[in-house]
Write a structure and sequence with these properties.
- It holds the Pfam family Ferric_reduct.
- This is Metalloreductase STEAP4.
- It is a multi-pass membrane protein.
- There is one protein chain.
- The longest helix has 32 residues, at 241-272.
- 56% of the residues lie in helices and 7% in strands.
- It is of the alpha/beta class.
- Helix 2 (29-40) links the parallel strand 1 and strand 2.
- The chain folds into two domains: 22-194, NAD(P)-binding Rossmann-like Domain (Rossmann fold), CATH 3.40.50; 200-451, Up-down Bundle (Four Helix Bundle (Hemerythrin (Met), subunit A)), CATH 1.20.120.
- It has helices at 2-11, 29-40, 67-72, 93-96, 117-124, 139-144, 160-172, 186-191, 201-230, 241-272, 281-288, 290-309, 315-331, 339-365, 368-371, 376-402, 419-423, 425-438, 440-450; strands at 22-25, 45-48, 63-65, 76-79, 100-103, 129-132, 152-157, 176-179.
- It has an eight-stranded mixed sheet with strand order 3-2-1-4-5-6-7-8, sandwiched between helices.
- It is elongated.
- It binds NADP nicotinamide-adenine-dinucleotide phosphate.
Length: 461
């Protein structure tokens, strides 16, 4: 009788307004936090525990029973236990038959076990309907209500109805369920909270490598060279001048690297004549971290702006201006205004300001709260059209900075080009390829390929 009634309960999803009782196995941190949240959302909650004594820690409206008794009261059972204790559920197989078991567990290491905890639970209790959910939400966030950053709850499971019932609970407690498919996805969902900024690794290591390279490059040309050949000590350049060279260089290179994989992908698609073949792995990974590359570039650009703002108060700069003025006074000779220089300097500053403004706009539109409020076409317009405009403005800013010295070989130290010239290589390559790709003879086939056309279709009628 007991078994039959529990099975009927297990098969009937929540169709009325009254909330169904939810059972939680385990009165640990997570079980209690989730239980409290559910009670606050109107669910009757019953805990299944090894000890049926209530304590002040357990939400006061919840019942605490033995596992078997608690399981009989609900169709959905949240298994808030560590995986190593799952074995104790085997004797309860009969009472758990047909129930929706929600696996919330996490591991200590990525791919710690050959199969996911949820699949393991499903193997132990083949009669139960296992759904993976809630593992990305922390007990602390549930208790303190600070769920803004982790409102999304990944849900997966083989039983559609069971998954739907769990997603209803997720919604009811004020979170957003995201269906990740079958139970096969559980491994990925369990690995998710263990990852450490996965998309940021490449941008951060790349920028660290480039920073180190350009630091030593600028140190050699701006500090060591004058010391060796002119016996001048410019070591203080390390504090502001060199960082203020490195920041714009990195901002420009990283911004160009955001757009380089896109043009490479276009070349590959044109060459293959199809979009249905996978890109090489390295290109796939590169494309996935473009947003992070762009944000790191924006951080470098912002620091460059700050360094630039302090230039007038630097002692070295004030000394140079005053000694120039005094030398003019002593020689009784004033320099006439050089209009070309004035044009170059104003254009350089204007291009920098505009470039930074659009760069900032790109950064803002990449925020989820903003990107969720624009449609696909608007997002593409900002990230592609405005993105290229930003790249053009920033490249022009650097080109104008070079001005007339660009081709003056006498200014090269140790036959090495100035660091800003190196920073122009990648952006110029990207802009030239993009310009070539705009030509109708290439743009037209590329658009067709991206709409599904194939030069040599694999499956022809
Ligand atoms: P916990 O504090 O260690 O509690 C686990 C509960 O399991 C204990 O309170 C105990 O409940 C029960 N238990 C312990 N040993 C047992 C045994 N030998 N046999 C049967 N039951 C036993 O763990 P937790 O932090 O609540 O986490 C529970 C699960 O949620 C874990 O799988 C964890 O990965 C997952 N999770 C936790 C968080 C978090 O922020 N804590 C976040 C996401 C997911 P009784 O004394 O009532 O029997």
């Amino acid at each position: 009788m007991t078994k039959n009634s529990s099975n009927i309960m297990a098969l009937s999803p929540n169709t009325s307004n009254k909330r169904e009782t939810v059972c939680i196995f385990g009165t640990g941190d997570f079980g209690r936090a989730l239980g409290l949240k559910m009670i606050q959302s109107g669910y009757p909650v019953v805990f299944g525990s090894r000890s049926t004594q209530t304590s002040s820690l357990i939400p006061k409206d919840a019942e605490v029973l033995s596992h078997a008794e608690a399981a009989q009261k609900a169709a959905i059972i949240i298994i808030a236990l560590q995986r190593q204790h799952y074995n104790f559920l085997i004797p309860l197989a009969e009472v758990l038959h047909g129930k929706v078991l929600v696996d919330v567990s996490n591991n200590l290491k990525i791919n710690q076990y050959p199969e996911s905890n949820a699949e393991y639970l499903s193997q132990l209790l083949p009669g139960a309907r296992v759904v993976k959910a809630f593992n990305t939400v922390s007990a602390w966030a549930l208790q303190s209500g600070t769920l803004d950053a982790s409102r999304q709850v990944f849900v997966c499971g083989d039983d559609m109805e069971a998954k739907q019932m769990v997603m209803d609970i997720v919604r009811a407690v004020g979170l957003t369920p995201l269906d990740k498919g079958s139970l096969l996805a559980a491994q990925e969902i369990e690995n998710y909270p263990l990852q450490l900024f996965p998309m940021w690794k490449f941008p951060i290591f790349l920028s660290l490598g480039l920073t180190a390279f350009f630091f030593f490059y600028c140190l050699a040309l701006d500090v060591i060279y004058p010391y060796v050949y002119q016996n001048k000590d410019f070591s203080f350049f390390i504090v502001i001048s060199i960082p203020n060279r490195i920041c714009p260089i990195l901002a420009l290179i990283l911004l160009a690297l955001v757009y380089l994989p896109g043009v490479l992908a276009a070349i590959i698609q044109l060459y293959r004549g199809t979009k249905y073949r996978r890109f090489p792995d390295w290109l796939d990974k590169w494309m996935l971290c473009r947003k992070q590359l762009g944000l790191v570039a924006l951080a470098f650009a912002s620091v460059h702006v700050l360094y630039t703002l302090v230039i007038p108060i630097r002692s070295y700069v004030r000394w140079r201006i005053s000694s120039h003025t005094i030398s003019q006074a002593l020689n009784n000779k004033t320099e006439p205004l050089n209009t070309t220089n004035a044009w170059l300097s104003d254009s350089y500053v204007a291009l920098g300001i505009l470039g930074f403004f659009f760069f900032f706009l790109l950064g803002i539109t990449s925020l989820p709260s903003v990107s969720n409020n624009v449609n696909w076409r608007e997002f593409r317009f900002v990230q592609s059209k405005l993105g290229y405009l930003t790249l053009i403005l920033c490249t022009a800013h650097t080109l104008v900075y070079g001005g007339k010295w660009f081709l003056n070989l006498s200014l090269y130290k140790w036959y090495l080009p100035h660091a800003y010239m190196l920073s122009l290589i990648v952006p110029c390559i990207v802009l030239v390829i993009k310009f070539v790709l705009i030509f109708p003879c290439l743009d037209k086939p590329l658009t067709q390929i991206r709409q599904g056309w194939e030069r040599n279709p694999k499956y022809s009628e």
